[in-house]
Each structure stands twice: as structure tokens, then as C-alpha cells.
Write a structure and sequence with these properties.
Structural class: alpha/beta
Strand order of the largest sheet: 1-2-3-4-5-7
Number of strands: 14
Number of domains: 2
CATH topology of the largest domain: Leucine-rich repeat, LRR (right-handed beta-alpha superhelix)
CATH architecture of the largest domain: Alpha-Beta Horseshoe
Number of helices: 13
Largest sheet: 6 strands, parallel
Distance between the termini: 73 Å
Shape: elongated
Order of helices and strands: EHEEEHEEHEEEHHEHEHHEHHEHEHH
Radius of gyration: 28 Å
Length: 371
């Protein structure tokens, strides 16, 4: 279409659905032989990725490349192939952080070509967490010219909204958190291995049987300290400590274990969680979108699942506060989904300030906890 313009210098093609138009251009015919092009604007075209040979004919001519408002989640080009590129805009894409290979390419490009290179980054979906530590350091230390004073909005390691300068100043804190996660993972593995060994040691005396609904083991006369341990995230504390506690404890006299109320200082939180699960007849998982993001909630789920297998009984009750499908659950929970009592909370229950417990949900919750 444009091959008859061999001396074309500037090409602007915004909002023209090039991602669709070029999806079959496997031989890179679109820009082929256009050796004089210096400026290209392909913004707002829905690109997710590029054919790696898209700009072969422009490696020695291109000065600026505008790729803003697309859908790139990774650095879109192999900059090491270019020799004259001085400006690249990936504003308002979906990049979370640059891979180490991309940062190395950019640094090598500056050294090799001795050019002043400008990279526009604003409006991406940056994260400031364990995965992006090298990227956060690179942003502040690179000689690549960056927009917005190198200070971009990002999702911090605790899921709050911060910026990259703040994260850079607190890199030691992020690294310590990441180290804690590594040790938490190791601890979980050790605990799981211990539970499997413990289970194996008693398997010879207990014949496992398949079950769909709770059936007490013969001779199971264990006295539990709590009727249920309730696992929930901080965002859902108001509903748990309000309506749920009012119904199960104050109205029906059950004993619940809540981490905000019943975990005293003095032990590691993971020790409290393990003790609470072992001292409770049931575990109620109050699952929301925020719950699924929490590493502690994941640990509580894994410990409850291991206890369920150890005791060979149904003890998990799932309360869904948000509209979530089983496919959105953690893999460990999906595997036992047919052995779990699942109750959905509708909007009337979440927003009811008067604790009207006539809804069928409350009766089913009570039955699931005491059965």
C-alpha cells in the first residue's frame, strides 16, 4: 500500500486497527523497503506484541517511535537492532516492569551508539514488589532520559498505591518482605511435609473412606476449644466482626476464633493460625477478591486443607462475599471443591445494618458450622 513512497520520512497511523490489519503480515511487507522513515506513530492501535521484524527496514533511519495507548505488557522492541533511535514512547500501556534483559539492552544501546535516548513511560501498570526490585533500582540509576522525573504510580508490595521514588527509597523494606515470603514458603513446605509424615504414621490404623458431607469418625469424642476458626482479610473485618459474630456467637452461643480478637502477642502469627485450626471443629473461609490476594489467607487455607486430610473429615465452610467462580479459587481449594460447603452472601446480607437474620443464608451457615 505504501511501497510506492520510498522517500517517506514520517508515518502517522493512529487508531487505525493496525493490530488487525497486520496480523497476517508474517513477511513484514507493510514497512518493507521504506529505508528513509525517521518518525513513526502507531499509537492507539491495540497492539499486544510486534512481529520482531516489523522495523527491519528502519533500523538505520528511525529517530522516534510512538507506541502509546496500546496493550503492550512487555518492552515492545529489540532496541539493540536500531542505531539512530532517540525517542520511544510506551505511555499508557500495560507494562508492570522491565525484564533484566530489556534493561541490559537499553544500557548497551546507550554505550554502543553514544546517543541521548528518551523513554516515555507514564501511565503504565507498574508494580513495586519482589518481582520489580531490579527495575525500581534501574529507574533511578540509568542514564536513559525518562519522563515524569522517573516517578511513576505503582502498586506497592502491600497492595497500596505508591510511586516508584517512594519504593526506591524503601527498597530495603521491600527486600526484607520478599525474604520473609521466601521463609514463609519454606515454612509452609516444612509444615506440609510434617503433616504428610504424621498422616502416614497413623494411616495403618485408619481406613480412609470417601465422603461428600460431614460424617463424624467413630469414637470421635474430641473436645474442641472453638466451634470454628474464621479466616478473613482485613478488608472484610467489619462484616465478620459485626454480622457474622452477632449471629453465630451472640444469637446462637457458638465460640469463634478471630485473629483480630483472639491472637495475643508473644508467638509467631503462623503458630497462632496452626493452633487455632487444630483447636477448632470447623474452619470458615470468608473469601473475597482481597482475600485471594493475601499470602496469610493462602497459608490459612493450606493449613485447613491439610488438617482436613489428616482428620479425614469435612471441616471447611466457604463464605463468598464477592461474585467469584470456583475457577477463580486457589488450585488447592479447587481440588477439594466438591468436599467443601459453599455459601454465597448476596447484597442484602452485606449491606444490612440491622442484622435481620431471617435470610436462609444464616440458617445454612449455622448448620454448616455445628453439623
Amino acid at each position: 500500500m505504501i511501497s510506492f513512497m520510498p522517500y517517506l520520512k514520517t508515518m502517522i497511523s493512529r487508531r487505525t486497527h493496525l493490530n488487525v490489519g497486520l496480523q497476517n503480515d508474517v513477511n513484514d511487507e507493510f514497512l518493507k523497503q521504506l529505508f528513509e522513515v525517521k518518525h513513526i506513530d502507531f499509537s492507539d492501535n491495540g497492539f499486544v506484541t510486534f512481529n520482531q521484524n516489523m522495523f527491519v527496514s528502519q533500523y538505520r533511519s528511525l529517530i522516534s517511535l510512538e507506541l502509546s495507548k496500546n496493550k503492550f505488557s512487555r518492552f515492545p522492541i529489540q532496541i539493540s537492532k536500531f542505531s539512530t533511535l532517540m525517542k520511544l514512547s510506551v505511555v499508557q500501556n500495560r507494562i508492570a516492569y522491565l525484564q533484566k534483559s530489556d534493561m541490559n539492552q537499553l544500557e548497551n544501546y546507550l554505550r554502543k551508539n553514544n546517543v541521548k535516548f528518551e523513554l516515555l513511560f507514564n501511565g503504565n501498570r507498574f508494580v513495586c514488589n519482589c518481582d520489580s526490585i531490579d527495575f525500581l533500582r534501574w529507574l533511578q540509576e540509568t542514564k536513559v532520559a525518562l519522563d515524569k522525573n522517573r516517578n511513576y504510580s505503582c502498586v506497592y508490595i502491600d497492595n497500596s498505591q505508591k510511586n516508584t521514588v517512594y519504593a526506591y527509597k524503601h527498597l530495603e523494606f521491600i527486600e526484607s518482605k520478599c525474604l520473609s515470603k521466601i521463609w514463609l514458603t519454606i515454612t509452609i513446605i516444612v509444615v506440609v511435609v510434617f503433616l504428610f509424615i504424621f498422616t502416614a504414621s497413623v494411616c495403618h490404623s485408619i481406613q480412609r473412606r470417601k465422603y461428600r458431607h460431614y460424617t463424624a469418625l467413630e469414637g470421635d469424642s474430641k473436645e474442641y476449644k472453638y466451634n470454628a476458626f474464621v479466616a478473613y482479610c482485613n478488608k472484610d473485618e467489619e462484616w465478620v466482626c459485626g454480622s457474622l459474630v452477632n449471629y453465630l456467637e451472640k444469637k446462637n452461643g457458638l465460640a469463634l476464633c478471630l485473629h483480630d480478637r483472639d491472637f495475643a502477642a508473644g508467638k509467631l502469627i503462623m503458630d497462632y493460625i496452626i493452633d487455632a485450626i487444630f483447636e477448632s471443629k470447623k474452619v470458615v473461609l470468608v473469601i473475597s477478591e482481597e482475600f485471594l490476594k493475601s499470602s496469610w489467607c493462602e497459608f490459612e487455607l493450606e493449613m485447613a486443607r491439610m488438617k482436613m486430610f489428616q482428620d479425614n473429615r469435612d471441616m471447611l465452610v466457604v463464605v463468598l462475599l464477592d461474585k467469584l467462580s470456583s475457577s477463580q479459587m486457589p488450585i488447592s481449594l479447587q481440588r477439594i471443591w466438591n468436599k467443601v460447603t459453599c455459601l454465597e452472601v448476596d447484597e442484602t446480607i452485606c449491606t444490612n445494618q440491622n442484622d435481620n437474620f431471617e435470610h436462609l443464608f444464616w440458617k445454612r451457615l449455622y448448620e454448616a458450622v455445628v453439623m
